Here is the input.
Amino acid sequence: MRIIVDAFGGDNAPLEILKGCEMAVKKFGVEILLTGSEEVIRRVAKDNNISLEHMEILDAPDVIGMEEHPNELRKSKKNCSLAVALRALDEGLGDGFVGAGSTGATLMGATTIVGRIKGVKRPALAPVMPKSEGVFMLIDCGANADCRAEMLAQFATMGSVYMEKVMGVKNPRIGLANVGTEDTKGDALRQETFPLLQQSGLNFVGNIEARDIPYDACDVVVCDGFTGNIILKLYEGVATALFGMIKGVMMSSLKTKIGAALIKKDMYTLKSKLDYNEYGGAPFIGVKKPVFKAHGSSMALTFCNAIGQAKTYIEADVVGAISAAMAGDSSEQ
Amino acid sequence: MRIIVDAFGGDNAPLEILKGCEMAVKKFGVEILLTGSEEVIRRVAKDNNISLEHMEILDAPDVIGMEEHPNELRKSKKNCSLAVALRALDEGLGDGFVGAGSTGATLMGATTIVGRIKGVKRPALAPVMPKSEGVFMLIDCGANADCRAEMLAQFATMGSVYMEKVMGVKNPRIGLANVGTEDTKGDALRQETFPLLQQSGLNFVGNIEARDIPYDACDVVVCDGFTGNIILKLYEGVATALFGMIKGVMMSSLKTKIGAALIKKDMYTLKSKLDYNEYGGAPFIGVKKPVFKAHGSSMALTFCNAIGQAKTYIEADVVGAISAAMAGDSSEQ
Here is the structure.
C-alpha cells in the first residue's frame, strides 16, 4: 500500500511530517510518496537522521499557506505540494492521501481534483472522537457551513458505513444533534432532516442533546458543518480548560500536591484518552479516493496515527461501500 | 421589592420552589407573590415547616406541563400558575417574575402576555456562564432556533447592556461564536452578522472559536438559539462527563484513593464553580418586564439564587437601559 503525503502541510512541516512518515513505514509497513521540495526534504531528513527508506519524492517546490484562499489551489498555487499530491492520488500513484495543511484548500482539492463519489452532494469532514465509552463519529465538522436536509441525510449514510466498516460497530446508532429529544424540536433544518433520517433505513435513534454527546448516546452524530465545528472545538476547549483548572487545584497547597502525585499517572492516561489528536486525523468522506486531513498542529505521532487510520480506511474499502450505498440510494428514488 | 413566582414550575415544584422562596426572603429581603393552588401550597408549606412570611398567594389551581405545547398557555391553560403569574407581572402586581417551568411556555407567555420592549425583534434567553476567569453571557441559548442577522446584532446590544449594568463589566467585549477567527469565516448567517457587529458601536472583538469560549475570550458570546443551546448543553455535558471519569480514575486503586482524599475538597470547590446551576437562572432579555427562567431541575438553593439574580436585574433597571438602547438604535437608522 502506498500513501501520498504532503510533506509541507501543517504548522510543523516538514520535520514532524517526515518523522511521522518514518514511524508509519515501520509501524504499518506502508510505502510513502512525499510531495514537496525534494531538496528541502532530503536536507531536513539528513540533518535529523530520518530514514527515507520506502519513501519516494515528487518534487513540488511551491506551498499553499494556511492563510491563503482555497481557490488559489486552482490558480496561483496549481503546482504546490498539496495540489501535486492530490493530482498524484487522482492519477493512481497511491492508494490514499494524508495531509496536515489548510482544511479549506484540502477540501477544495479533494472536490475539484479528485472528485466526489457519484451521488454524493457534498463530502464531509468527519473525525472520530472519544466519549465516556469508546468513540463516535461527528459528521460534518467543518466542510460545509451551510447545509440542506438531504446533505445531512447523506452524512448519516456515510457515517454509518464508516463506523461499520472501519470501527467494526454493528448497525451503528445514528443521532441528530439537536436542542431537545422530541421529534419536533430544533430549527427548520433539523425539522426537515428528522423525517429523512426516519425513512433512511439506518438505525436512527432520534435527536441527541449536546449534553448527551460525551456519553454513549449514539455512534454517529449528524450535524451541519457549522454546528459540528462548534461541537468539535468546544469539546476540546472545555476539556483542556478543565484539565488546566484541575492542575491549578492540584498545585494549590502542599496537601493537594501530595495528592496529585498519587493520581498523576492515571490522570495522564485519562487526558490522553480524551485528546482527539491521538486519533490522528479525519477523512473527507464522500471523495472518490481516500483523503485524510491530519490536525494542523500535528506532531510526528499524530501524523503517524493519521496514516494508520488512512490505511484502515483503504483496507476496509470505505469508498467502495459508500459508492454502493449511494447507488442504492439513487435506485430507490 | 416584590417577585412573582410560579410555585408549580419545574421538576421539583412546589416543595423546592417554596424552600427557595423562603431562603430568598431571608437572604435578599424580598416579598414574594406565589401563583398556584393555594391549598397545595399551604399544605406543603405546613408539612415541611416552611414559613410563608412575606409571601402572598394568587390562587391558580391549573398547571402547564413540561411536555405540553407552549400554545396551550393561550388556549386550554389560560389560567395555569404560569399564565396567572405573567398576567400579574403585566398588571404591575410585582417587579419581576421567576419560574422553573417549561422554557417554551415561559417564552410564549413573556412575549404574548408581557410583551417585548419596543424595537426588540425577539427576546433571547441568556444565561451567565462560568469560564476560566469570571463569567460570560451566552445570548441566545434557546429562545430562537432560527435567527436573522439583525436579531444577532440586537442580542449583542442587549448582552452588552446586561454585562455592564448587572455584572459591572466596563465596555463588555462582544464575540461572535464562529468556526474561525478570520472576518470571512462561517455560514451565511455569520457572514451577514459580522459587518453589523462591526458597525454597532459596541466593543466587538470579532469571531470567537468554540475552543476559546471557556477561556477569557470575551464577555458576551453572540449566537443563534440553536447554536447557543448546543454550546450550553455541551459545556455542561463535557464538564460532567469529565468529572465522572476523573472520579473513576480516583477510585481505581488504593494509591489513587489516598490521593483523591487529599484533593477532594478543592475539587468540589472547582466543580461547584463550574456548575451553572449555582448561577440560578437566565433572563429572557428583551421582554418589557423582568422575566427569569430558573433551571427546570432547580433545587431550593438554585431557585433562591435565581431570585437573587432577578433582584439585581430589577435594581439595575436593565429593561430601562435596553429600552433606551433600542430607542437609540432606531433613531440611528
